[in-house]
Amino acid sequence: MPEGHTLHRLAIDLTDAFGGSVVAASSPQGQGRFEDGAAQLDGRELIAADAWGKHLFVRFAGTELVLHVHLGLYGKLRIAGADVLPDPVGQVRLRLVTTDRSDGRVTWADLRGATACELLTPEERDALVARLGPDPLREGADADPDRAWARIGRSRKSVAALLMEQDVVAGIGNVYRAELLFRHRVDPFREGRSMRVGRWQEMWADLVELMHLGVAVNRIETVRPEHEAAARAAAKQYEGGRRRRSGLSYVYRRDGQPCLVCGTQVRTEVLVARNLFWCPRCQPRFRSRAQR
DNA sequence: CGCATATGAAAAG
DNA sequence: TTTTCCTATGCGT
């Protein structure tokens, strides 16, 4: 589930679990891909983790190098604790372990399937962050919607495509994109430059709230209270008694099903290699003055 | 059990 | 535009 909220939540959880502690770092089944990196971190105190967009950074004492993790589509970083450290399962690229001195309990974090797991110099980290857009989950100037507007307001690309570009807004993924456009009744295919700045400011403010909620509950929840009952009922039909893992959604992965607001069939189409979902009635095709 | 699919992004061609 | 990374889940058999 790696959209921005996932990485910010992991940064919090990593800091809570390991911050101020000396960690053992290893790359048990990393097939040699991060053994050197793990060795450089082994035995150091973990200071803190933070995130920018979908990128996670972890700082350690006594080295300038910063651990950089990007989960990609299916990477996972799992943090857990127990009396006994379990054997690693699967391709564990990085394992961090800390042992409580008083009771001997262990806390560990296993990283699997990540697109990036590497050590960066401060310069490399800065260069990486420099090519990312503002992140709704960061504070102050790091979360400046005007920077995103400078790109969106002048672009001929579709809003749907722009929202997925990490140098426009950092942290949005396919779910937040589809749901944000629906919540604001925006036609995904309209050009960025056809938008008005006021609309973008509303969308950004909403995004800040939605993503903070996502961090708090550790999943993407986008359905307004007044539509929750309908969303739950609709989701139930497809659950078949199983426990629902993902959050409720208006349009994401609901293609062919009736829109929760107007009943029209939700549509899907591949746009820039990703599945886009929208309601053709709630998000009608935008026509510019020239087209009218 | 096997197989298709997924919330991403960079490299290859 | 296609391939790669190679995890976890959900579904059909």
What do these coordinates show?
Residues 2-115 form the Formamidopyrimidine-DNA glycosylase catalytic domain. GO terms for molecular function: class I DNA-(apurinic or apyrimidinic site) endonuclease activity; damaged DNA binding; oxidized pyrimidine nucleobase lesion DNA N-glycosylase activity; zinc ion binding. It holds the Pfam family H2TH. Keywords: DNA damage, DNA repair, DNA-binding, Glycosidase, Hydrolase, Lyase, Metal-binding, Multifunctional enzyme, Zinc, Zinc-finger. Belongs to the FPG family. The protein has 292 residues and is an alpha+beta fold. The chain folds into 2 domains: 4-130, MutM-like, N-terminal (N-terminal domain of MutM-like DNA repair proteins), CATH 3.20.190.10; 140-278, Orthogonal Bundle (Helicase, Ruva Protein, domain 3). 31% of the residues lie in helices and 20% in strands. It has 8 helices and 10 strands. It has helices spanning 4-18, 35-41, 122-130, 145-152, 159-164, 174-183, 197-217, 225-239, and strands at 24-26, 46-52, 55-60, 66-70, 76-82, 92-99, 106-112, 116-120, 267-271, 274-278. The strands form 3 sheets. Strands 1-6-7-5 form a 4-stranded antiparallel β-sheet. Strands 2-3-4-8 form a 4-stranded antiparallel β-sheet, with helices on both faces. Strand 2 (46-52) and strand 3 form a beta hairpin. Helix 1 (4-18) packs parallel to helix 7. The chain is globular and about 65 Å long. The mean pLDDT is 93. The structure holds a DNA duplex (13 and 13 nucleotides).
